[in-house]
Amino acid sequence: MSKEKDKEKEEIEEKQEEPKLTSIPGIGPGIASKLEAAGVYDLMGLAVMSPATLSDLAGVGEAVARKAIQAARGMMKLGFVDGVEFDKRKAELGFITTGSKNLDVLMGGKGIECGAMTEVYGGFSCGKSQLAFCLAVNVQLPKEQGGLNGKAVFIDTEGTFSPGRIKQIAEGLSASPEKVLKNILVARAFNADHQILLIDKITELIKENNEPIKLVIIDSLTAHFRAEFTGRGQLADRQQKLNKYLHQLTRLAEQHKLAIYVTNQVMSNPAMMFGDPTTHVGGHIVGHAAKMRIYLRKGKQGSRVAKMVDSPDLPENEAAFFVTPIGLKDEPASE
Question: Which tens digits make up the pLDDT trace of 142-153?
Answer without folding.
Answer: 999 999 999 999
